[in-house]
Amino acid sequence: MRTLNRLLLAGLFAIAPSAVMAADDAPSADPDVTIRTEGDKLIQEYRQNGFLYAIKVTPKVGKPYFLVRADGSEGNFVRSDYPDMLIPAWEIFKW
Q1: Of 5, 26, 28, 85, which residue is 20 to 30 A from 51 by alpha carbon distance?
Q2: pTM above 0.70?
Q3: Total tally of structural domains belonging to the chain
């Protein structure tokens, strides 16, 4: 009986470090928020595990609004208050 208890205790000590390492690699539940200023707007980008899923735009004049993914593709965002209006991600001119 005593040897069985020692083996169980040794097994627990052997498994504990791998459980801690697995917890460190787990995806975080909190989003990463990047805040930047572009012109007269404050832009907050919300990312979950590196995936950009929402953008909050706060202009100096007017109400703040959110841009959210229209679908899973890259670069297609819609305003959350106007879901039928697509926001294009391509450039026409660049100086």
Answers
A1: 85
A2: no
A3: 1
